[in-house]
Design brief:
alpha/beta, binds glyoxylic acid, Rossmann fold, five-stranded parallel sheet, seven-stranded parallel sheet, 37% helix, 13 helices
Length: 328
């Protein structure tokens, strides 16, 4: 009888994906609410043919080297900055991810963050809950207009583009910065290319949609924040380390910018006593931009399909290191 491949799944994921994996594999599932510690990863991977990971798992060169039988790593996320892609490629291991299916949910959420900070929704909720709502106040909780404002999109990939489509409905002027100029999108969506310095100086809202790479780590540093308008709002639904947290705390507390809305932070999670959490002009939510039922179901299914394709020796439907196929 043919033995099923052994896979380690680093957290309970939606059944839509998990069941597919269970049908074809022997599953070792980490049942913890928190990610498996690194020593658990190092203990589990040597016996595994496949690994289904989340963005909270450090799949570094050491873990990849320990996975002597690994034929595929499949991550249930679009971002794969937690995985040493170079080490995986060098070992001939394809790495799967889940682009596309979370684009619209993430773009919706980016707008939710932007609106929440612009119109001070969390402050309003706190105000009501604290019993401070006594009357309609002519000058209470004043925010800034979104309609007609200038939006600066850093990274015009799938999600950045979906954000631009929404911004058109708000009659925003849309600037974008991206290492690759996108003339077809400029024509289709009326977005204008700008160098990062110019985008930062002109935008009322700066929203980040780039992957975390050595080039984008601390892209939004002290100099970048100082270049922004004092009335501007920063939105980050990309990766926490794209922003220099220390500089952001100074920017928000000293008024270099008006506010920030963060789905992602550095570190992540933020400890409850972190200075960012005591700033009224900072909205922080726990990395939930893709968190809708249908999106997470689709992500789990694609993660399963990538995993199974890799185990069968087929090309992954969504591969984060396609160069692995050239090197084989
Ligand atoms: C979420 O942050 C993802 O990369 O899918």
């Amino acid at each position: 009888m043919e033995t099923k491949p052994l896979v380690f799944v680093t957290r309970r994921i939606p059944e839509e994906g998990l069941n597919l994996v269970r049908e074809a594999c022997t599953v070792r599932l980490w049942e913890g609410e928190l990610p498996p510690p690194k020593d658990v990863l190092l203990r589990e991977v040597p016996a595994c043919d496949g690994l289904l990971s989340l963005l909270t798992d450090p799949i570094d060169a050491e873990v990849i080297a320990a996975g002597v039988r690994l034929r595929v790593i499949s991550q249930m996320a679009v971002g794969v900055d937690n995985i040493d892609l170079r080490a995986a490629t060098a070992r001939g291991i394809p790495v799967g991810h889940t682009p596309g299916v979370l684009t619209e949910a993430t773009a919706d959420f980016t707008f939710a963050l932007l609106m929440a900070a612009a119109r001070r929704i969390p402050e309003g909720v706190d105000y009501v809950r604290a019993g401070k709502w006594r009357t309609w106040e002519p000058m209470g909780l004043l925010g800034v207009d979104v309609w007609g404002a200038t939006l600066g999109i850093v990274g015009l990939g799938r999600i950045g583009t979906a954000v631009a489509r929404r911004a058109r409905g708000f009659a925003m002027r849309i600037l974008y910065y991206d290492p690759t100029r996108r003339p077809e999108l400029e024509a289709e969506l009326g977005v204008e290319y700008a160098e990062l310095e110019d985008l930062l100086a002109q935008a009322d809202f700066v929203t980040l949609h780039c992957p975390l790479t050595p080039q984008t780590r601390h892209l939004i540093n002290e100099a970048a924040l100082r270049r922004m308008k004092p009335t501007a709002i920063l939105v980050n639904a990309a990766r926490g380390p794209v922003v220099d947290t220390g500089a952001l705390i100074r920017a928000l507390s000293e008024g270099w910018i008006r506010a920030a809305a963060l789905d992602v932070t550095d570190p992540e999670p933020l400890p409850p006593d972190h200075p960012l959490l005591s700033l009224p002009n900072c909205v922080v939510v726990p990395h939930i931009a893709s968190a809708t039922v249908s999106t997470r179901n689709r992500m789990a299914r694609i993660a399963a399909e990538n995993l199974l394709a890799g185990l069968r020796g087929q090309r992954l439907p969504y591969c984060a290191n396609p160069e692995v196929y050239r090197e084989l």
